[in-house]
Automatic annotation (TrEMBL):
InterPro entries: AAA_assoc_2, AAA_ATPase_RarA/MGS1/WRNIP1, DNA_pol3_clamp-load_cplx_C, MgsA_C. Residues 30-101 form the AAA C-terminal domain. GO terms for biological process: DNA synthesis involved in DNA repair; DNA-templated DNA replication. This is Replication-associated recombination protein A. Residues 102-268 form the MgsA AAA+ ATPase C-terminal domain. GO terms for molecular function: ATP binding; DNA binding; enzyme activator activity; single-stranded DNA helicase activity. SUPFAM superfamilies: post-AAA+ oligomerization domain-like. PANTHER family: ATPASE WRNIP1, WERNER HELICASE-INTERACTING PROTEIN 1 FAMILY MEMBER. Gene3D superfamilies: 1.10.8.60, 1.20.272.10, DNA polymerase III clamp loader subunits, C-terminal domain (1.10.3710.10). The lineage of its organism: Bacteria, Pseudomonadati, Bacteroidota, Bacteroidia, Bacteroidales. Keywords: ATP-binding, Nucleotide-binding.
Amino acid sequence: VLKPLGEDDLLKLLHRALHEDVELKQRVFDVQQTEALFRFSGGDARKLLNILDLLVNAEDGETIVINNRTVTDRLQENPAAYDKGGEMHYDIISAFIKSIRGSDPDAALYWLARMVEAGEDPAFIARRLVISAAEDIGLANPNALLMANACFDALQNIGWPEGRIVLAEATVYLASSPKSNSAYLAIDRALDVVRRTGNLPVPLHLRNASTSLMKELDYGKEYKYAHDYPGHFVRQEYMPENLKERSFWQPQTMPAEQKLKEYISRLWPERY
């Protein structure tokens, strides 16, 4: 793993590029500030040279001014300058999601700001928030998924730069919510069983009797319609024969999920 270059090394690289590069030395540069240039480069020599190239191509005047404002403006106008396919792109989104999962809203906001400042696609961030809401918050706070979806929709409606506020609101809400990954674990358990057991037959009473022949074969026969019974519940078997009493969802300890467990355990006490 290559270590990022320090400020002194970046400054040397900058001076060398401006005075020795075949194309750059033909232009006139006014280097006023380097903080933004070095910050956006992330200690990556290749990225610093890419940013210089971007500044050159964007400026028709005789003198190319390098300061914090010009660098920031050019990168925001050209999001492709952010290394979306590079290692840092994935490192930052990973840090963002892990900060939400770790219930640290301040850290999550910092990594969000890093992505916003670098020109990351807001829709990409919003999609990751939706995934996090389902995977990491889940049934501990089902409203988190509604919030994340609302964030995604709002971005489409209001655009940028106001969209950054919507992303920040959803980020803080998710990071500050109680966490549960029980739904994530449950579907993976179910998928594992399906892959090991194959296409087990659907019980006859659960099948769709859409033709007279199917009715003659007892499709749907003896099915009990839950709404016809007290409390809108009646015990009957919904699993394939080989999976009776199999349990995939294992409720976790957060209050909202425990309320679901309390209800469902009264219906299926042998499972929950």
